[in-house]
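Notes from the 1:1 (GR / supervisor)

We went over the backlog. Supervisor wanted to see one worked example end to end before approving the batch request, so GR pasted a single chain during the call. The sequence is below; no edits were made to it. Supervisor asked that the structure be written out right there so they could see what the output format looks like.
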Amino acid sequence: MTPATAGSIRHRARQIARDTWQSRANLSFFLSLLVILVFVLPLTSLVEEHFNLYIDIAYTVMLISGIAIGWGRSKLFYAGVIVGVIGVAVRWLSWWHPQLLLFREPTGLVAIVLMIAILLVKVFQKGPVSVARIQGAIAAYLLLGLSWANAYAILSRHHPGAFSSAIASPSTTTAWTYFSFMTLTTVGYGDIVPASPVARMLAMGEAVSGQLYLAVLLARLVALQVSNTSASADNHV
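Structure output shown during the call:
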């Protein structure tokens, strides 16, 4: 294989990776994984015995897929790769080294925040309002909920009395995910309640960020649609 051929193959591979956003293949897969992780796995009795194992598998695949979306953004992509490798390594090594359990949520939180940044760069960039953009916006919203769930888990681990519950003190991934999305959507059933000042501030921050995200997203989508419609009309004049 000549250097020119090898260079052509590499260029083509990069082009295909960039086009995954436009083709929606990887993005659809990523969004499906998020839905499974948030809504399906907690309800599946078949995986109840090995729930944490399936969560870690889904998290690992989701992280690889999410970071791959940022291939065309070199700084975000390489930062995501570094954080992702650390996060996955900590998550799996903690099965054999329990002392690493303290770092699962912090490394997971950083990785999720980077994935949100990668998606939002794509969602808010100029261009037509496409299905891929909508999928990216939904995925970013779900990741927002997961990021706050990790933040609550970190706070609860270091301050056990930060939250109170009518049944028992929440401690599982499912419980924090449930509380996070109830707060993000400002539903708040009241079965889990922030009891400390820090917990209350986190819950308030999530509620505000959830509403601001939807407001800014709708404004941006409308602006993009108006802009592209006007540009299309000018081109036909």
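Supervisor's comment: Strands lie at 163-165, 192-194.
Batch request approved.
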